[in-house]
Amino acid sequence: MSATLHPLFNPRSIAVIGASEGTSATGAPKMGASALQHLIEHRFPGRIYPVNPRGGTLMGLETYRSIAEIPEEVDLALIVVPLDACLDAVRQCVAKNVKGAVVFTSGFAEAGRADLQEEMVRIAREGGLRLVGPNTAGFVNVAGDMVASISMVCQINPFRKGPIAFVTQSGALGGSMLGRGMEQGIGFNCWVSTGNEADLDAADYVDYLLERPEVKVVALFLEGVRDAAKFFAMAAKAARLRKPIVVYKTGVSEVAAEAAASHTGALAGSDRIFDAVCRQFGLVRVDDVAMLFPVALTFAWVGERLPMGRRMAVVSASGGICGVAADECARAGLDLPELTEAAKEKLRGFTPPFASLRNPIDVTGQIRSYATGYQDTVRTVLAEPYIDGVLLLVTMAAEPRASFYGREISKLTAEAGKPVIVAWTGALSVAAQGYPMLTANAVPNFLSVRQAIEAMAALERYRAFLDRQEQRKAVGDRP
Amino acid sequence: MNATSHKPPLAEAAALIEAAQRRRQGALSEYEAKRLLGLYGIAVTREMLAADAAAAAAAAARLGFPVALKGCHWTLQHKTEADMIRLGLVDAAAVAAACAELAPRLPEGGEWLVQEMVSGKREVMLGLARDPQFGACISLGIGGIFAEAVGDVVFRIAPFDALEAEAMIDELRLGSLLGPFRGLPPADRGALARALLALSDIAQAFPAIREIDINPMIIAGAQPVAIDALVILQP
Fold it and tell me: How far apart are CA A291 and CA A287, in angstroms?
């Protein structure tokens, strides 16, 4: 896929076919204006060629009456013409030897015109042109400042760059998720709205994006799988590269099961089968769409420091939240082994007398009178060989205590060889300096205990999958 | 990532399925289904087919009492619902009486299946279903009377390897039932994993099989034994 998609994601020149300047009846810019405007405003480093039969200039750029008139090579075309002009635009791209085209226009297979879509794909394939869409919000190479999208999320400028490649089969929802994610401090390498997937599908994009060195994790919003074999191959490649794919899937209702004659057939609903696919092929499935990016980011930040097992330690200054954490760990299948007597003895040296040194470890609110008590406690449990990961729960912490937590937890996380995840449940308005330090320093953090613990459990499941893969390599077994 | 080696179908198993297809059966009878599973190394009940009540009583004597008696015909796919099972028959007279009682409901061409009684407190169910998208899926679930209410069942896409079969067992929420449990020995995990792999092989070897249920598979002591089996053929 790399040879095919690299030129699309890294074009030196882009033509916008159907570029315009106008606004629609609602006052919003026309698609042809959005596409051009986003390219310009996000400072696309290559050449931009607006194409409009009227010619002249658009947004200060010389405009060509047809793609054939463009004097230089065109790597990528953005097609924003009406439905009945799409096939002709694709033909012109083929004639111009364009490598890829994004067809934003709707009204194809999703509106009962599969015939039109098939004809467009046929023309493109015969001419060696790859298609994104149709009926897509487009794609964004965030890392390369290339914004080939009509989504209103592109009004966020600049985009926040980071380790996540986001591929979605829903353009509108995808744009909203991307925008909200960036506001929450999450950075992206790429965003692709796959549209109708007439030519390239989600597995093709993921396959390519996995190869980008800056991509550490893929976030995938899925409505359906088009080609199971290709999907499996994509997952296998991700496993080989040790880059997790975090996936949220809609449409998990039970349809195929109805016709079954056997008990097994009746149980084999699409949700259970997709769950099996994820477990078997190492995809990290989340069942809450709001967890897609936070879990993906946790993987990116934890990197190779995955938990070696299910044994966790919980540290907090609140007995109440320790109880919550114990319940949530049980729910998520994580263990909380009791500390050894030797470890407890050590902790007694730097914790208040009423601290509870079982696990969860409640250092009590008195810990604030001990200059290094909190850090020494966390450092001690991190060093225990029977602890695979540490959950730090911060309840009500106002400045300057909030900054103490932000700073010290950032240091502890940076030096730890094991995963550390924070749940911060207190008011944020009085933690305005401290809480943001966590995200700034790549410390996985959540606002709910359950989410933090689910993220840790996801890390553990992925590590167990990688272990099975390693064993297969070791014995040369059939996988 | 997934297994690439397709084992060729066992000739005897292929013959069994082809014969059923020639007779235009929509499914294998229980006896045929268990022979197929047995050929692939899955432990099944000791059992004999009998054409009539006298033969059934004789078969029971050879197997040793008590026995189970079932009507056996490929159309009898849900025998409990059809009331075609009698369990714990203690002597020849009981077998003959059971045959007489069930005979009016036995389909044309049906026979009697006489089985050893297998006891065990724990039950699992295994199966095969074909997903239109992902292909053959093998299932493992906790069985027994609460099975549906509990809904503890996991799937894998065939083919898969022993590590995946082990992972399936580990994934059951009630997997602790299969460990040392209330004085019972741990279930033979290796045997269970091999049964799952056998289903994976069968799924690959016989596209003509649409669905399989092994339900129940009783953990007898430590050993999982298929008590009943349903093999649905493609139309």
Answer: 8
